[in-house]
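Q: Please design a sequence for this.
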């Protein structure tokens, strides 16, 4: 539930139009520059010298953005070009993420979510449906904050039985960590994230807590190339032993001036 755990985005949409009601922008929350229309990410395996070799079999991700910098659609395809997953995203007039319709394997239903927003532009209740359209869970929220991001959520099953909850922390628009708990308040997992001066994620740790053990996985990132606007175009991922495990390359398509008119 990525769309749920890190809903929405950040930052004031600014000077595009005094009449527009959009307050939040996904691209701004990621500190990405320019009027981006789409981002394509391609993962590559790493050879013994630490350089990119063959593309991973799955998956290439393509995200599409509206003129306010909010994601409205994304899909993935494998190295052969076969469509794997697709999500069409709905937005409130203020830019908040208010749901998605998901498909997989070339169009098969994979579930959906609908999120309520009150007259003040605040989240109320979200409903998550399975691939047949039946209600699975619903969620209540803490937030959003001034950047449109959730500070926490609680999950209930279709019979209103409380299942789990999570809290999230931010430094302005940057997610710095969170904690999830089960229905009786025991910690299930917690995370922490570090960034460089550009707001790019450089380290993340995720700790899983079970009855018998506590396990922490640390992942680090370096940024090897940027485009003329300062957005990263190549990133290398490292495991906790310092071994490069994946290289990701990004291609940005920027909206042309004539398309804005």
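A: Design:
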């Amino acid at each position: 539930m990525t769309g749920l755990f890190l809903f929405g985005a950040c930052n004031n949409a600014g000077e595009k139009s005094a009449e527009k009601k959009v307050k939040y922008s996904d691209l701004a929350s990621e500190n990405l520059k320019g009027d981006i229309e789409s981002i394509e990410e391609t993962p590559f395996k790493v050879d013994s010298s630490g350089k990119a070799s063959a593309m991973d079999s799955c998956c290439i991700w393509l995200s599409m953005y509206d003129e306010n910098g909010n994601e409205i659609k994304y899909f993935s395809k494998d190295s052969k070009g076969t469509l794997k997953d697709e999500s069409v995203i709905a937005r409130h007039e203020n830019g908040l993420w208010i749901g998605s319709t998901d498909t997989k394997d070339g169009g098969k239903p994979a579930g959906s979510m609908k999120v309520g927003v009150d007259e003040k532009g605040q989240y109320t209740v979200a409903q998550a449906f399975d691939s047949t359209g039946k209600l699975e869970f619903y969620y209540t929220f803490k937030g959003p904050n001034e950047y449109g991001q959730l500070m926490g959520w609680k999950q209930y099953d279709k019979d209103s039985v409380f299942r789990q909850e999570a809290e999230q922390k931010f430094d302005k628009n940057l997610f710095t960590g969170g904690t999830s708990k089960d229905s009786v308040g025991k910690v299930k997992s917690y995370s922490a994230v570090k960034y460089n001066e550009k707001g790019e994620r450089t380290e993340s740790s995720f700790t899983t807590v079970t009855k018998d053990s506590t396990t922490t996985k640390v992942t680090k990132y370096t940024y090897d190339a940027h485009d003329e606007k300062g957005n990263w175009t190549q990133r290398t991922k490292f495991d906790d032993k310092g071994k490069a495990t994946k290289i990701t390359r990004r291609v940005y398509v920027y909206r042309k001036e004539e398309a804005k008119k």
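Q: Thanks. Anything notable?
A: The two ends are 36 Å apart (CA to CA). The CA atoms of residues 39 and 252 lie 5 Å apart.
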